[in-house]
Amino acid sequence: MKAALSTRGPTRLLLAPALVALALLTGLAAGAPSAGAAQRATAATSVTAATSATTATRVTTATSVSAVAEALRESPVYVDPAARAQLSAAEADTLARQIKDADKPLFVAVLPAGYPTRDLFTDLRTATGVTGLYAIRLGTGFDARADAAVMPRTAVRNLVTSVRGESDTQTQLDDFTDRALTNMAGSAPSTWGSSDGGGGVSTAALITVGAVLVAGGAGAYTVVRRNRRRHEEEQRAALEKLRVVVDEDITAFGEELDRLDFHPAEAGADDSMRADYERALDAYDRAKSTMAQAGKPEDVRAVTEALADGRFSLAALAARRESRPLPDRRPPCFFDPRHGLSVADASWTPPGGATREVPVCAADRTRLADGRDPVVREVDTEYGRRPYWEAGPAYGPWAGGYFGGGILPGLLVGTLLGSMMATPAYAADYGSGYGDFGGYEGGDVSGADFNADDFGGGFGGGGDFGGGDFGGGGDFGGGF
User: Fold this and answer.
1) What is each CA distance from 54 to 51, 61, 64, 414, in whole angstroms?
2) Between the chain's N and C termini, which has fewer beta carbons within 10 Å?
3) Which DSSP helix (H) or strand (E) runs through 25?
């Protein structure tokens, strides 16, 4: 290099200072002296370092429960950065739009394997602060919990069981979401906003639509009247089929009253016994009068609600007379409500369906434990005698009166009646979808004011693993 410089001559050496001076003048004219450039470079380096530190912090907090909860308050689906291989951004967006469009408080989180599971559901519900159904895919495990106002624990457990065998994340979450949205009550939190693209409707468009409506008004009115008559005829036919079953229920309850052989003035009778007996008689009368006035299938729900109330009163009366502890208020036997109050929940798998927990009477519990079939309530259909859950859609309100409080959806998942009730057409025809049976609201901000028992238990495959592992679905709390 030195040799090269020595050959350039004196002229080059004289020009060098001039070029340096020119460069300094140019920098000053641009307002960027070399010292300032150095300062900016130093500042840029500092910003880069700070950004890197912030990014590192975000990566650390992205897997905290607080970060997950914050994300779920903004959108129904959260995918942890370490679990993005399980569910792509496009798949997550599609799932989120489906939940938003359904207007249901369903929260879905995809977390990496090894994520701490101790008290995960309880902590996530507390941090999110919104009443809802919470589903978590953790590695290859899956579980869910819900506030009872949104879905009872039995329904949650049954839904989780129905998809737990699916190893593919997208398939599992899609199937769970499809089934959950038709089962759960409540509305989406307002913090999610809308999935619609928005945009107003122009005046010209409104005028055009109005002209079309006026032009087709006469024809539409004729079609509506014809459809309405057909719908009324179908409802009357469905009610007549259902009336036979309901009359059998009322008769069976009346026979129970007779067999009780209770007299309010008998020796040992007290005011509590007489009150139970009076409530049972009132329920019997209410069931008869309501059925006599029924004009459509959905009216039958009030009839079976009265019969369920009456049977509980009889069970309480029998316990008082025999000096036994009063029974818990449980739903009737799933297989045939005429069997009376259920005594426990038992695992049952319908043909071609997933295993679920159903309320059973003592006799059916014994049959199932022995590997025998339960005694099922069958009804007449066009294909012969079939279980009521494989009969027509009119049996939805009938079953809803017996299994109210939101328990029915989990019982009927995967059955013909359950599939019918999940459709918008069913709600339009019979006034009762899955969510209508519970009458609950969800999506409200409750903060930490919720029943932690709803989020208890462990996380995972059908039972508590212990030590913070996944448990059996249903309640929030404990481990995950």
Assistant:
1) 5, 10, 15, 48
2) N
3) helix 9-29
Reduced to 3 states, what is the DSSP secondary structure of residue 126? helix
Return d(Cα 267, Cα 264) in angstroms, integer. Answer: 9
Nearest Cα to Cα of residue 109 among 184, 194, 193, 173: 173
The angle at the Cα of 251, spanning 232 to 364, to the nearest 5 degrees, equals 100
Whether 107 shows a pLDDT value over 90: the answer reads yes
As a whole number, the mean pLDDT across the chain is: 77
**How do 344-348 and 141-146 pair as beta strands?**
unpaired
Joined tokens for residue 343: 């005594």
3-state secondary structure of 104: coil
In this predicted structure, what is the pLDDT of residue 377? Answer: 94
Look up tokens 């840029």; give the residue.
44
Q: Where are the alpha helices (DSSP H) in 403-457?
A: 408-412, 416-421, 424-430, 434-438
Tell me the per-residue pLDDT of 155-166, one tens digit each, with 9 for 90 and over.
Answer: 888 889 889 888
The structure tokens 């003035």 sit at 265
User: Which position has the token pair 């929260």?
Assistant: 107
Half-sphere exposure of residue 317: CA atoms within 13 angstroms, side-chain side: 26
The DSSP annotation for 327-390 comes to PP---B-SS-GGG-B--EEEEE--TTS--EEEEE-HHHHHHHHTTPPP---EEEETTEEEEGGG
Instruction: For residue 358, list its beta bridge partners.
Output: 346
* 454, 475 Cβ separation under 8 angstroms: yes
Q: How far apart are the C-alpha atoms of 357 and 350, rounded to whole Å?
A: 11
pLDDT tens track for 407-437: 777 788 777 777 667 665 665 566 544 333 3
Query: CA–CA separation, 273 vs 264, rounded Å?
Result: 8
Helix boundaries (H) for 135-199:
153-163, 169-183
